[in-house]
């Protein structure tokens, strides 16, 4: 897409953007409202989330959300929420804030060979910490709570 585009394409064929103008008969939207189109509008219908049993994830706090209950039931849809939002700058600020205030994730470092076992544990809800996959086998393989002693081995992305 061009850099001048006002609408972004998201994973799963959804389209999101902001209302730029409204017609005189439009009552449900105002200029500046965040809006989106779900995966059914002109989607390929090939990906899992465009067919059945998909998940609608709400990442902002909208004024109101309406769903057709029959669609949720018949299409085996799930509604989920996440406070994760923003882009690279917000993520950078969050990571810096956490580092400055001693806030660290609880992680379990696993070797790449254990990925299938990790997926099974996720399915069985037998996960206590977030998995970090050590592809290069450079990290100490054990659960970590609190500051990472291996932080100097993890390259900074910022």
Automatic annotation (TrEMBL):
EC number(s) on file: 1.1.1.195
Gene3D superfamilies from the UniProt entry: Medium-chain alcohol dehydrogenases, catalytic domain, NAD(P)-binding Rossmann-like Domain
Enzyme class: oxidoreductase
Transmembrane segments annotated in the record for this chain: none
Residue stretches making up the Alcohol dehydrogenase-like N-terminal domain: 10-48
Keyword Oxidoreductase carried by entry: yes
Catalytic activity: (E)-cinnamyl alcohol + NADP(+) = (E)-cinnamaldehyde + NADPH + H(+)
GO MF annotation: an example: metal ion binding
Pathways per UniProt: Aromatic compound metabolism; phenylpropanoid biosynthesis
Chaperone among keywords: no
Keywords assigned by UniProt, alphabetized: Lignin biosynthesis, Metal-binding, NADP, Oxidoreductase, Zinc
Pfam family, one: ADH_N
Biological processes per GO annotation: lignin biosynthetic process
PANTHER family in the cross-refs: ALDEHYDE REDUCTASE
Family: Belongs to the zinc-containing alcohol dehydrogenase family.
Subunit structure: Homodimer.
Protein name: cinnamyl-alcohol dehydrogenase
């Amino acid at each position: 897409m061009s850099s001048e585009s006002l609408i972004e394409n998201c994973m799963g064929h959804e389209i999101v953007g902001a209302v730029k103008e409204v017609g005189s008969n439009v009552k449900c939207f105002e200029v500046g409202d965040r809006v989106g189109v779900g995966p059914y509008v002109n989607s390929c219908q090939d990906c899992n989330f465009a067919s059945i049993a998909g998940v609608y994830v709400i990442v902002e706090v909208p004024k109101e959300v309406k769903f057709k209950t029959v669609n949720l039931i018949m299409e085996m849809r799930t509604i989920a929420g996440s406070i994760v939002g923003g882009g690279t700058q917000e993520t950078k600020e969050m990571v810096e804030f956490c580092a400055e205030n001693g806030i660290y994730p609880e992680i379990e470092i696993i070797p790449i060979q254990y990925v299938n076992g990790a997926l099974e544990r996720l399915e069985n809800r037998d996960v206590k910490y977030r998995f970090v996959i050590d592809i290069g086998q450079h990290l100490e393989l054990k659960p970590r709570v609190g500051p990472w002693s291996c932080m100097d081995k993890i390259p900074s992305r910022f």
